[in-house]
Design a protein that fits this description.
The protein has 20 helices and 2 strands. With 503 residues, the protein is an all-alpha fold.
């Protein structure tokens, strides 16, 4: 007989950061509908910023609290709270970049900000999922608003195409995820991540069909989430969607969706399935080899194809694919016993560093973009240092950080990822990561060359006050984390893989 859960078993207080954002989006929907004039939708944007700020403050106040909620389906710990910082930061910058853009593009509608908040809340629930069913629900809550936002610049054909491609491939990837969840459930008899962790040892010892189902299910889950984080060979949608979607949406999804996807990937692989081995007593997870091969392919393809791009949004799309490869290096390293905590912390540090850097780069691209969506080619950056020296300098910082140059947050992120990879014994993967970082310098520096060493008269029609604020804040975060890395390392040091001790 179905039992009605008590308020104590729901333990809603632990989920307050995510719930407050989702509830704020619902309230904002009503406010926008009844009280915000049609020609003053920037009010909705500013209220959305307030909602993000409130959720951020709540997250900081509850940062060190841990426990489960919703009858064990939701887990609050330092891992999820750290990820919330990345996700809420992405939402804040995404809204800030959108305030003037939606006016310029003629798509100023209040539901734009509400969809963005709902998607961000889905990302937060994904990072706190302690059950495979909740992973799927959070994934859909994350994805469906992004499908709409990608096509928000209708009737522009590229935007409609971006939304359709993202929707079709996103639904396709969800099917893989659900099938994988079904196989894992068939092997373990549960969808709770903590219970799965506790049952893996007996399944590995017994071998047989249960182990086959568990390994096959893990592979399908990896495929499903691989689409979401855009790793090779599940990256096909990324360049077209990034190019066609409104630029602030592209910026938001490039970081937020990645954070949500990798959160679920780490929850499932590093938290619930770190001991899945093909032979008894093996200290390396069965999924590690597949993961590091995918990471290597992602690094190689993302960086090499980016060289041929002439559009800044497509260049940053392939750059995003490559950076997914660097984060996946940390996920692969988490498959080695004794390195799991270090690798998880490295992935979180990289995500935070990537948030500032990539959103800042998209901010400068948005500043150069014209009202009709043109102005996104690399040639449009020629001479930007002469016409807008401040913006050009910020772009230099972001390009150097994406390359991994010291004194930037990008260097700190790569340092910890490479260290975890080497500590896990994945030397070949670390070498590939270093070599592809060198390759990436070519196309990042090309942007700098266009701005400083070529004659031109680049314009920045989109460099409004809100966009400038977003760019300068992102640059400040990039430099501060690069010069004072202890800020982020102190936050991440408390993150531990603790699925085995959760109820």
């Amino acid at each position: 007989m179905f039992q009605i859960p008590s308020f104590e078993s729901l333990n809603v207080g632990l989920a307050l950061p995510a719930i407050s954002l989702a509830f704020g989006a619902c309230v904002l929907l009503l406010l926008d509908l009844f009280f915000v004039p049609k020609d003053r939708k920037e009010i909705t944007g500013y209220l959305a910023l307030v909602g993000v700020a409130v959720s951020f403050v709540i997250n900081l106040l509850t940062f060190n609290q841990s426990g489960t909620a919703f009858m064990g389906m939701f887990v609050a710990d330092t891992f999820s709270n750290f990820l919330n910082i990345v996700i809420l930061g992405s939402a804040f910058f995404g809204i800030l970049l959108s305030l003037d853009y939606v006016k310029r593009a003629g798509i100023e509608r209040g539901e734009y900000y509400i969809l963005l908040l709902i998607s961000a809340s889905g990302m937060m629930f994904m990072g706190s999922s302690n059950d495979l069913v909740m992973v799927f629900i959070a994934l859909e809550l994350l994805s469906i608003p992004l499908y709409v936002l990608a096509a928000f610049r209708t009737p522009e054909v590229r935007s409609e195409e971006a939304g359709m491609k993202y929707f079709i491939l996103g639904a396709f990837s969800s099917a893989f995820l659900v099938y994988g969840v079904a196989l894992v459930y068939g092997a373990t008899g549960t969808t709770n991540l903590s219970a799965i962790f506790n049952s893996v040892g007996a399944i590995v010892d017994a071998g047989g069909s249960a182990l086959f189902l568990l390994v096959a299910g893990t592979g399908l889950v990896l495929v499903g989430l691989g689409f979401k984080v855009a790793v090779v060979p599940f990256h096909m949608w990324t360049p077209d969607v990034y190019e066609g979607a409104p630029t602030p949406v592209t910026a938001f999804m490039s970081v937020g969706a990645k954070a949500g996807g990798f959160a679920a990937l780490l929850r499932i692989l590093a938290f619930a399935l770190p001991t899945v081995a093909l032979t008894q007593g093996d200290l390396v997870a069965a999924w590690q080899q597949t993961t590091w091969v995918i990471a290597a392919l992602t690094l190689i393809l993302g960086n090499l194809v980016a060289i041929a791009q002439t559009n800044i949004k497509r260049l940053l799309a392939y750059s995003s694919i490559a950076h997914a490869g660097y984060i996946l290096m940390a996920v692969a390293a988490a498959g080695t016993a004794g390195v799991t905590n270090e690798a998880t912390q490295a992935a979180l540090i990289y995500l935070l560093a990537y948030m500032f850097t990539n959103l800042g780069a998209f901010g400068v691209a948005l500043a150069v973009e014209r009202d009709d969506g043109t102005g996104t080619n690399l040639e449009d950056f020629v001479g930007l240092a002469r016409s807008r020296p401040g913006l050009a300098l910020m772009m230099v910082i972001f390009m150097l950080s994406l390359t991994g140059i010291p004194l930037t947050s990008g260097f700190i992120g790569k340092w910890f990822v490479f260290k975890a990879t080497l500590d896990a014994g994945l030397v070949v993967l670390a070498i590939i990561g270093v070599l592809t970082s060198v390759v990436s310098a070519f196309y990042y520096v090309r942007v700098i060359v266009n701005m400083y060493l070529r004659e031109g008269d680049a314009e920045a029609p989109g460099a409004t006050r809100a966009v400038n604020w977003a760019v300068y804040l992102a640059a400040a975060g990039t430099i501060i984390l690069g010069v004072f890395p202890f800020i982020v390392t102190n936050l991440s040091s408390a993150v531990t893989v603790a699925a085995n001790i959760l109820p």
